[in-house]
Amino acid sequence: MIVYSLVNQKGGVSKTTTAAELWAGLNLLGKKALAIDLDSQGNFTYFAGAKMGGKSALGLLTREATAEEAIQDTRLGAFVPSSSALSGADKIIDETGKEYRLREALSELPAGSYDYVIIDTPPELGILTINALTASDFVIIPAQADVFSLQGIEKLSHTIKTVKTYCNRELAIAGLLLTRYNPRTLLTQSITSSMNELARKLGTKVFDTAIREGVAVKEAQLQRMSLSEYAPKSKPAEDYSQFLRELMTTERGEASPSGFSE
């Protein structure tokens, strides 16, 4: 089972959209993919058509529910929903070993239950994101080609380094994914160059695939459909499909991330 977390404390970078398209795409390929929504806003939960109010991701972290109890079967696949109470997780989850709660919950799933777990994280670097990173094999960092994304990634890198040191030595950054991309502007070209330099410092890469912006993204979300279902010929759908192929190539070791450079 391979666990991916989508992380960026900066909002508006298509983090949840990327998590949703990755999860849906894997299931459409015949993989067994479980998704977990750790963001109290619940946007991923809405997209999945899952129900809030029962056993949720918060229950996994408070040990009030097992992963099997919290998983809902949705039209797009297996899903653990958000809870609005996740907004107070840093106060609720304060016991020793709090960083390992999600990892422990996933370890209790029967062997072979899932090929992948996709975790959507909130736009802040608190205990929820720490739990996601501790439970993950890889981090995907969605980012726009702007200076604020560069600043956010530098801050995030310190959190990832800390988790690697104390909680999860095997954690690796799969790569930086450029989203809402417009290759025509000079600013985009300049920032992309800076992104590649930052990625080298982090011992990872900027994915070759960039996700172009398109109205089909919001339309598909409104219909609670993946882009490959709603508008398979749209530019964002083509990009996400290509990204999934690139990511699975990375898994096979052809472009394996090596962690942080010294």
Structural class: alpha/beta
**What best-fitting shape do the alpha-carbon axes yield?**
globular
Terminal CA distance? 29 Å
Work out the helix count. 12
Helical content (DSSP H or I, runs of 4+): 40-55%
Summarize the structure in words.
The protein has 262 residues and is α/β, with parallel strands linked by helices. The protein has one domain: P-loop containing nucleotide triphosphate hydrolases (Rossmann fold, 3-Layer(aba) Sandwich), CATH 3.40.50.300. It is built from twelve helices and seven strands. The chain has a seven-stranded mixed beta sheet with strand order 3-4-2-5-1-6-7, sandwiched between helices. A hairpin with a 2-residue loop joins strand 3 and strand 4. The longest helix is centred in the middle third of the chain and has 20 residues, at 147-166. The radius of gyration is 17 Å and the shape is globular. The model is unreliable at 254-262 (pLDDT under 50).
Overview features:
Rossmann fold, disordered C terminus, 262 residues, alpha/beta, 44% helix
What is the topology?
Layout: E1 2-6, H1 15-28, E2 33-37, H2 43-48, H3 57-62, H4 67-70, E3 72-74, E4 77-80, H5 89-92, H6 101-107, E5 116-120, H7 127-135, E6 138-143, H8 147-166, E7 172-178, H9 186-201, H10 215-222, H11 227-230, H12 235-251
Parallel strand pairs: 1-5, 1-6, 2-4, 2-5, 6-7
Antiparallel strand pairs: 3-4
Helix pairs in contact: 6-7
